[in-house]
Specification:
Layout: E1 2-3, E2 9-12, E3 21-28, H1 33-43, E4 47-55, E5 59-67, H2 74-84, E6 88-91, E7 94-97, E8 109-117, H3 122-132, E9 135-144, E10 149-158, H4 166-180, E11 184-192, E12 200-201, H5 207-210, E13 230-234, E14 242-249, H6 254-264, E15 268-276, E16 281-289, H7 299-314, E17 318-324, E18 327-335, H8 346-356, E19 360-371, E20 374-384, H9 393-405
Parallel strand pairs: 12-19
Antiparallel strand pairs: 1-7, 2-3, 3-5, 4-5, 4-15, 6-7, 8-10, 8-11, 9-10, 9-19, 13-14, 14-16, 15-16, 17-18, 18-20, 19-20
Helix pairs in contact: 1-2, 1-6, 3-4, 3-8, 6-7, 8-9
């Protein structure tokens, strides 16, 4: 079966501000394809408000309606979406698809070091530049010296795989210089080994982050959002598929969180439909099968999947603010994919929320920890609120959480 390369991904940008753009994907299927596509869409700052997925296990057809970013570079988005579809090779004017290789070379890691004079919102401006350049932030260490200078260490991966070139490094520093102006003192980029990303143990994490949240609807510690989440698995409506019905509140990356969970469990979607209703309410119907092509009949497996989905829908991220003596520390944690990929734009949204709250950042780092049997990315940010400008902890927590969830 062949298909023209330009037809693998089709994008129809909206003509009106209040209408969604439409993305159509027509390519061979693979387990986790929906997760990979949704991750790219989330990275571009778009929200999926409606979707239809159909596949026969070999070929799939996906239509997604998206909103959220008027400055989207649609041509680049199309290129990135095509890249996560199963790899292809050309034959005459047609493009034929073949399965991706089981293993691929790990991406090179680079260390971006720059020094500059501190100011409010500095870290968010830097993060915005890196996101615009399609640089993934894997780890960061930010420190402020007593004389008002900032030394930033960003451990980054270049999605364009060009950072080894002098031109790409120079362009990155030039973009930072353009945004920071005379505040920037120096900028250096060098390749480093991937061992710096080795996972740490969770023993040093506060219980507010490391402890599994209570999902019991009747528990006084459970968030109010738990009462708005319903996950039902039904084997009676299809002879060959398990139907997963989800009703929940919308949040930024909702479909990505669902697809990521199914990918981690090696579950394939044969047919799916999701739609955003009024007041952020969402309804999702998914007909799924296991890796062996059969429905999920084992009750224990159903319970595990249902519990995990509820966890991802109620607590896709964990946010807490703690007192460290005279200082205030913000912690944000999110699970990574089994492939090792982290959630897109988390640090971007954290720094944006703090910038809007007029809160400075004295120290920040991103590290990976094992919480239970799952790897998590944990963002630890020491806040510099300034003399006489203290912001209540609950306001900081709510502001950051709303930004991360897309409710700001």
């Amino acid at each position: 079966m062949g298909i023209l390369l330009d037809d693998v991904v089709l994008i129809r940008p909206s003509e009106k501000h209040d209408e969604p753009s439409v993305i159509t994907v027509n390519c061979p299927d693979k387990t986790g394809l929906g997760c990979d596509l949704c991750r790219v869409i989330l990275f571009f700052g778009l929200n999926i408000v409606r979707g239809d997925v159909t596949t026969d296990g070999k070929w799939c057809y996906i239509v997604l309606w998206v909103t959220g970013n008027s400055s989207t570079r649609w041509g680049l988005l199309k290129q990135r979406l095509v890249e996560v579809c199963p790899s292809c090779y050309s034959a005459a004017t047609l493009v034929y698809f073949r399965p991706e290789p089981q293993s691929s070379k790990p991406s090179d890691m680079f260390l971006l070091k720059f020094c500059c004079h501190d100011r409010r919102g500095l870290l968010h401006d830097v993060t915005s530049v890196l996101c615009e350049l399609e640089l993934l932030i894997e780890k960061v260490k930010v420190s402020t010296t007593p004389d008002g200078k900032v030394m930033d260490l960003f451990f980054i991966i270049d999605t364009r795989e060009l950072m080894h070139t002098t031109k790409r490094q120079r362009d990155t520093c030039d973009h930072l210089k353009h945004v920071l102006g005379d505040a920037m003192i120096s900028c250096e980029i060098e390749m480093i080994g991937a061992e710096v990303m080795l996972c740490s143990q969770a023993s040093s994490l506060p219980s507010e982050i490391a402890k599994e949240p209570d999902l019991n609807e009747n528990s006084p510690t459970t968030s109010s959002g738990a009462k708005d989440v319903s996950v039902t698995l039904d084997n009676s409506l299809s002879p060959s598929h398990t139907l997963v019905q989800i009703v929940c509140q919308d949040h930024k990356g909702l479909i990505y969180d669902i697809m990521r969970t199914l990918k981690d469990y090696n579950i394939q979607i044969s047919y799916g439909r999701f739609n955003k209703k009024e007041r952020r309410s969402c309804e999702i119907d998914l007909f799924i099968v296991q890796a062996d092509g059969k429905k999920i009949l084992d009750q224990s497996k159903q319970n595990v999947l249902s519990t995990r989905l509820r966890m991802e829908l109620i607590h896709p991220l964990r946010v807490t603010v703690l007192s460290r003596g005279p200082d205030t520390e913000l912690l944000v944690a999110n699970p990574t994919e089994l492939s090792g990929k982290g959630r897109p734009l988390v640090f971007y949204n954290i720094t944006l929320a703090l910038k809007l709250l007029d809160i400075g950042i004295f120290l920040a780092e991103i590290r990976r920890y094992l919480i239970g049997d799952q790897e998590w990315e944990v963002y630890r940010v020491m806040l510099d609120e300034g003399a006489g400008s203290s912001v209540p902890r609950n306001k900081i927590k709510d502001g950051v959480r709303k930004m991360l969830m897309g409710w700001a």
